[in-house]
Amino acid sequence: MTSSIVDKGATPTPRRPGRPRADGASPTGRGTESDLLSAAARLFCTVGYTATSTRAIADAAGVRQASIYHWFGTKSAILQRLLLDSVEPSLESARLLLARPEAPAVRLWALARLDVELLCSGDLNIGALYLLPEVADDGFATFREHREQLRAAYGDLVSGTVGSDVGPDDATAMVLTFVESVILRRRDEPGLDAARAGQRYADLVLRLLGLDDDAVARAHEAGSALADTVRRKKPVARQN
Q1: Nearest Cα to 16, choosing from 32, 37, 30, 29?
Q2: Are the C-beta atoms of 102 and 219 separated by less than 8 Å?
Q3: 174 in a domain, yes or no?
Q4: Domain at 146, CATH number
Q5: Which of these, 63, 117, 161, 167, could form a disulfide with 105 (CB 3.0-4.6 Å)?
Q6: Which residue intervals are the DNA-binding region (predicted)?
Q7: Phi/psi of residue 17, each to 5°?
Q8: What is the C-alpha to C-alpha distance for residues 105 and 107, in angstroms, rounded to an integer?
Q9: Residue 31 in contact with residue 21, Cβ under 8 Å?
Q10: Do residue 100 and residue 62 come from a single domain?
Q11: Which residues form the domain of 215?
């Protein structure tokens, strides 16, 4: 099966020499850029994107406001970086899985599990930022393009799982909507267990596509091992 993903990669943030901190040591221990991303993520997820000022981000990160313009330029650039950091690990999983020889149902199970686990990871519900109306603006085209590449990967695996007699576009939309519904569930259940949710959602994805109990059980067993293999091949995801 030929992948419909185009591996263009995220536009990297230019690495620049650091600027002096306003006060104290780095809260994350990873430097000013990570401090700004971490502070912005927490404020966007708790206070709200619109209500968060660049000064508030700088204050929370313990740096001067000028550091934001030095590292990112704008508040929207910080949001796009957070969005890209949240979707890129799933897109990398998809690329690895599309190149594997296992049955499409097994690879789809693994992708759904890894995607749900990522959306449930960390102490902040970063996936909720996908729902911001600002994400429809032109400035977030790169994120939307990467998310579309992920949708295309799901489409390849869904088509191989259900066959040509089922509308692949409708089935893909149903699967992706269901996977990303964990964002809303996590909002209502902050302590949602990522590993358990990943396996449960992956099982339900195949059930939504009409697979019977035996087929789901086989995909679960093989997909669990495959997901672990793919995870070992990926770089560690950024935690904000």
Answers
A1: 32
A2: no
A3: yes
A4: 1.10.357
A5: 161
A6: 53-72
A7: -60, 145
A8: 5
A9: no
A10: no
A11: 83-233
- Residue by residue, pLDDT tens for the chain (240 residues) are 434 454 433 344 444 444 444 555 565 556 899 999 999 999 999 999 999 999 999 999 999 999 998 999 999 999 999 999 999 999 999 999 999 999 999 999 999 999 999 999 989 999 999 999 999 999 899 999 999 999 999 999 999 998 655 667 889 999 999 999 999 999 888 889 999 999 999 999 999 999 999 999 999 999 999 999 999 886 554 445
* Residue listed under structure tokens 């099982």: 203
Count: domains in the chain: 2
Q: Give the predicted TM-score (pTM) of the model.
A: 0.83
Q: Which phi-psi region, left, alpha or beta, contains residue 3 (left: φ > 0; alpha: ψ -120 to 50)? A: beta
Same domain, 198 and 224: yes
Amino acid identity, position 151: R
183 found inside a domain = yes
The C-alpha torsion from 167 through 168 and 171 to 174, rounded to 10°, is: -120
